[in-house]
Write a structure and sequence with these properties.
The structure holds two protein chains of two kinds. By secondary structure, chain A is an alpha/beta fold. Chain A has 17 helices and nine strands. In chain A, α13 crosses α17 and α14 runs parallel beside α17. Chain A starts with 17 loop residues before the first helix and ends in a 14-residue tail after the last helix. In chain B, a hairpin with a 2-residue loop joins β17 and β18. The chains are: A alpha/beta, B alpha/beta.
Amino acid sequence: MFEPILTRNIHRPNSEKIATYLAHGGYAAVKLALTKTPDELIEMVKRSGLRGRGGAGFPAGVKWGYMPKGAGIQKFVAVNTDEGEPGTFKDREIVERDPHQVIEGVIIAAYAVGASRAYVYIRGEFFLGVKRWIKAIADAYEYGFLGRNILGSGFDLDMSVHRGAGAYICGEETAMLESLEGKRGNPRLKPPYPAQAGLFGLPTLVHNIETLACIPHIVERGPEWFASIGTAESKGPKIFSVSGHVNRPGNYELPLGVTLREIIYEHAGGIRGGRELKAVIPGGASTPMLTASQIDVPMAYETLKAAGSELGTGAIVVLDVTTCMVETARRLTKFFAHESCGRCTPCRIGSQRLYETLDRIESGKGTMDDIDRAVELARGIDGITFCPMGAMLVNPARSAIQHFRPEFEYHILNKHCLVCKSKERNYG
Amino acid sequence: MTKQVTLTIDGQQVAVSEGTLIVNAAKQIGIDIPVFCYHPKMEPVGMCRQCLVEVGRPVVDRATGQVVMEDGKPKIQFGAKLETACTTPVSDGMVVLTASEKAKANQREILEFLLTSHPLDCPVCDKGGECPLQNLTLAHGAPASRFIYDEKQHADKRVPLGDLIWLDRERCIQCARCIRFQDEIAGESVLAFYQRGRATDIITNSEPGFDSIFSGNTTDICPVGALTTADFRFGARPWEMKAAASICSQCPVGCNVTLNTRREAKSGGKVVLKRVMPRQNEAVNEIWICDKGRFAHHFTENEHRLATPLARKDGKLALVSWDKALGLVAGKLADAKGEAVVLASGRLSNEDLFNLKQLADGLGGEALLYTQMGGGELTTAYGVPAGTNFAEMGIGTTILVVASDLYNEAPIWYLRLKQAAERGATLILANARETKLEKYSQFVVRYSYGDEAETICGLAKKAHVGEAITSAENLVVLYGSDGLGLDGSSALAAACAELVKSRAGKPNNGLIGVWPRANDQGAWELGFKPVADLKAVFQKANVVYIAGADPFGDNPELTSRIPHHASRIPQHASRSTHPAPFIIVQELFLTETAKLADVILPAQAVTEREGSFTSGERRAQRFYPAVPARGQSRADFVITAQIAAEFGLELEGRFAARVMDKMAATVKTFAGISYRELAETTEQWPIVGRGDLYYGGTTYENKQGLGVILALSPSPTGRGARGEGKPLRPDEDHWLAVPVTRLYDLGITVATSALLKARTGGAHILLHPDSAQKLGLAAGEQVELNGNRLEVRLDPTVPVMVALVPRSMGVPIAGPMVAKIKAA
């Protein structure tokens, strides 16, 4: 049985309180980190093999290394709690139940890259999360973990919370920075990357909070320990948010490399009602779905890529045989069309056209051409958009057609659903 | 010299400077990469994805750092994804394919996306015929769409963003060029995106809507017909119109414009002016014009234009033939000899003014310039020489702006100085009140009205500001007449000239006058002298020949000398025993001055004839006829020459070009200049106005001449007059009224353009809120100033007990004056 690391505290009473965190060894890593040089810490994170948990999986240590050196430069850490990927609810749990773990990670990261200001960007709908963040930061100030001369080290760090206004795209790091600056949340042109010119044009280290939550443990228990968990290219623990047709949906912290089968059948209690599995979305709504036959794939960056999908945020959406795949693709595409920022042509218009095409098929008005049209559209959008969202938004439709084309054809030929046999629609 | 980078685009090698974007490198060798959101004057954003190309780079061996060779050539690796040509800078050895199957497929698909919801308005759309979307669809689009027609999204088609600009939301392709123009170039962020995804909309967030004086430019760079001007909307199809090069006559900047004309049924089969478009001159207006220049053109076709000569008969003005009018006028002038006065303004062209001066000289009379701003002899001596260009000014250049509200007086200079400041030039603003350009300035010098010249005299010795002036590599001083009359501005010019004297003749150094009219500088060059006391002129002269000026309209008190308006003569004023002068007025309209004339000679508008203006930068520029002349009207220089001929003085009255030849032969600063030289052009960057409208917009290419900056005349013929007496000061009981310039005043060009007239809001004065409170007045209430009833507007930047009185808004004000102000 894997011993939880990131979620080790979340089931304790008052787990969000600083007293609880301190009582269980909290903030020890900060004390230790402040005795090391920034370069030693960057080296540790590099050796740990930690990769970003926000979806893109970029090596964290490399990112730290990109930050310009030198004390004369104002630098920032931006903490991404804008968890908006459908199916993902891990960040919410961390921030609501163990925010100090993240603050500790932020302090260490800021110290390592020489930042004196940290901004938390949190999804506006996380009402409890906002409260927890604010309280935790206030307490950290009170205990001397934030503010001037932290623990007598001479290192200063200020931290505050900024609420988002409800846009999926603001989870993308540069759009988040724009939003933090008070602007419309549009992705920025890269390069320059945030490490060169981020928030307010200054070097900024942007991390998802799960990534930051790993940092204290790497510092305390060593990069080698961290690297011993997981697979060749995917190191450390990961919180998998399991939802959909399982008996026990929820967050499960497991080592990277655990198979989908193990997560679904051992940890999440198998399929609801003992039904047959149909498909799994392994890394959040924007990752391509896998079929029931593919669930022996280990949940790791490299293995999922080989299987034609992505680890993404590690949010597993389990779909059983009662699921209409046409409707699934339609509904997810509708989400992305709604959330497109509108900045670039293929995403702004393509997402809408893709949704309309799927909607036509789903509602029994489609023609056989529509399937090919959807595939063509997906190809046309993928790879040419301004930000990665274009490549992601086509995944639900493209993978659903790839794996379940006969269902689409059935909809067109019979003008109703293969699964529910109903012409009625009672969803949005 | 920046490093040169060599790359290959579609098989052609090109060397460009480092940092050049692929799209611009391609442009330089004639390869047009299609773009919608990219514009060469703005930062690239990579939004529309139309410009995606295949980019390959040489493979470099990581160990050795050497380029890997293959078959004797560098091995090129192409990226998996297409790259945006508009955001990717070139690099050495780069290979770009703009027309590969992959690139072409993308061009096709983006166009298809854009067209899925684009309305089929082309047959009625203003942009049709000069539309980037239309042109690029023809060049790169797919013959058929894969998308179903009835799924087009519909949106509002008639959205007024402001009084001047309409938005058609269906046509918009969300390229954000208009938003970015307002943010980056105009510096007036009044447009924004609203909503997101497919619902993304352009909105205005200012009150009133689209509150910018540069708004018309957005319609030029809009790559579809989404933005149209209220003035031209549904006015004509681009291909029906002819184009004539012209120079804007609204201010001293001298923007190069193109006048589009059409012969049309609804105008009774006449050729009429349909719109004014910018014409590229990177040293003057780049590719922009202000809204006044664009929309204040309706005076040409106004029904009240004078069309025939008129002469007074039995106290009334009656039609006469040209022969009769000329004979009458010439007779009076010949009799008057040295008692004749020519009074002209900078509204006239160089040629007109030259002939008028020749005529005055021939008679032994005076040639007077109707102006309230002095110092022209100093700009002639210490002006900016050839080779000067605001676009080249940046770090190392200091620009001092004194007593000028450039935003209102010369909007394009406002833009260019803003840009110079953004490039690192040190901008110093000296004025008695805050003006709009101040937000881009490094130093602000605040003085009290009356202290202008004194302040500038002491400026060089002041800490920081003085250093910025004396140690600057280049120094340009612009002075105006904000709050000043003739005396004050003359004194100010003299003070300003001291700052630049030692730099005379060095490019990007010198003195520039922000004149009230387009060709004031030309009048000074040609020897016209300003006149301080007009009343005395009318008291002394036997004949006054007034061309292009309306002294009685500007100051009704002058009428006391003229008998025809008996009702307007105050009894005490008519005591003079000298008979009233014979008045000749050469005009476009029946102005207040014309109404008092003995003979009225109808002149042609700038749009109807040939000629040249000298801009504030002393650039002589040609304009060309665009529309046929109104009625029997004649060009000013022609009329003058014909009058002269009547009494045997030979002046050139046939061709403007030959007047210029004479000018070149006799006027020092025009030496060697010819119409041919003024019509010369050189390659300009960015390349605009050719077949590639999607790149630079519908701005016209300049094929008609970039103009020539006049030579300096190192020994000034006169000295700037020092202001006499003590400056006027407001105090507890006395108000100081000072003149200021508003872009949209009630001058004839604005008054005849309904769209702009609506924006002037009528006669008003500006007071500090505390001043208004003292009078017990609130904004919008009526005030009485020296007998004139005006609306009060509040402006906290106005000094207390000072009233700003906009010129040409119905209140006579020649310079600062102590005024009686009370609640009306």
